[in-house]
Amino acid sequence: MEGIGVLEELGELTRRGEPFALATVVWRQSPSSSQPGARAIITAGGELRGWIGGACAEPVVIREAQQVMAEGTARLLLLGTPEQFGAAVPDGMTVIPIACQSEGALEVYIEPVLPVPHLVIVGDSPMARTLASLAGTLGWRADLIPGPDFTSEAADGRSMIVVATQGHGDEEVLERAVAAGPAYLGLVGSRRRGAAVLGYLADRGVPQDQLDRVRVPAGLDLGRTTHQEIAVAILAELVQLRASGALAGARGREPGTESVRQAGPEEARPALVTDPVCGMAVSADSSLPLRYEGTDYYFCCAGCRQAFQQDPDAYLKRETRC
User: Fold this and answer.
1) Percent of the chain with pLDDT over 90
2) For residue 222, what is the enclosing H or E element?
3) Residue pair 173/122 in contact by the 8 Å Cβ criterion
4) Checking phi first, is residue 121 left (phi over 0); if not, alpha (psi -120 to 50) or beta?
């Protein structure tokens, strides 16, 4: 995948609301195999789609991209040996030593692309419309869906759902909302009304642990309020919960608060290990393993493997000192 293919994949991941990082090569030193402008997408599961360089650069970029997604802040990397750059490295740039046999180097900009918070409001009251408008002002993706049109497919584990059907099919809508397994689920209504709805769903066999996650009434308790103030109270509760980390699945773009989806078995990536000769991060599925005294060691290139094979104890003692 390269060029327009990377951009198409970027659009598809964004549409699905999946977090990822975009790595762009901004400078290269020959004989690096990459070129300025080359791009690659790194998924939350550690899969690299695109091209930013060969075996030396790829595992390092994957590792740094996952850190970028976890922190929510972009990072500019300089991949090469420190001796190549000396005091010429500007402040704020991260130097990652890669000691391949070639003398190439890369400058790679990695930026996180994290999903915006997704709020699903079920209902068509003035309060529901006000809440959708306020959420849009924050840059959230807000879907306003009439009760009869709502299905569990309208949300996922990262979504926040507010049921504001106001007595019109509350039970059926809330049952479908529970099935979506959202990060937040709130019902607009009194505690008495909420207890009746939840009791009905319990009698229908909805698991109690799922019902216990429903917030009734939704929003901060501001006492007697107007419908506009109820919308503000609900949004304030959502902002508060997200900021505290209580809605990990619904986190969005704020630095340091993003949640990265864990990779499933089909997305599992080989573990990264350290080349004992040059210190590079390499994949454990490397084609250059070497077993020494019952332990497998992995190398970024044939030169490092050969150097280790000639005097393994020298490199292992250096590792112990470090």
Assistant:
1) 48
2) none
3) yes
4) beta
Render the burial of 232-245: b for 16+ CB within 10 Å, e for the rest: bbbbebbeebbeee
Asked whether the beta carbons of 97 and 278 are under 8 A apart, the reply is yes
95: left (phi over 0), alpha (psi -120 to 50) or beta: beta
Give the residue-averaged pLDDT of 239-250. 79
Q: What is the DSSP string of 60-121?
A: HHHHHHHHHHHHT--EEEEEE-HHHHGGGPPTTPEEEE---SS--EEEEEEEEE-PPPEEEE
Q: Are 201 and 178 in contact (CB under 8 A)?
A: yes
Total length of the chain:
322
DSSP 7-24: HHHHHHHHHHT--EEEEE
Predicted TM-score (pTM) of this structure: 0.59
Alpha helices in 72-113 (DSSP H): 82-85
Distances (CA, A) of 135 to 95, 118, 119, 160, 177: 40, 9, 8, 11, 19
What amino acid is encoded at 241 in this protein?
Answer: L
In b/e form, how buried is each residue of 193-204, taking b as 16+ CB within 10 angstroms? bbeebbeebeee
Locate tokens 């070129």: which residue? 35
Strand pairing partners for 179? none
**CA 305 – CA 49 distance, rounded (Å):** 28
**Residue 219, pLDDT score:** 95
Q: In a 3-state reduction of DSSP, which class is residue 314?
A: helix
Give residue 166's region: left, alpha or beta (phi > 0; psi -120 to 50): left
Confidence of residue 275 (pLDDT cuts 50, 70, 90): confident
- The token duo for 147 is 């009760």
Residues 125, 139: Cα–Cα separation, whole Å? 22
Phi, psi at 195, each rounded to 5°:
-65, -40
Pairing of strands 272-274, 281-283: antiparallel
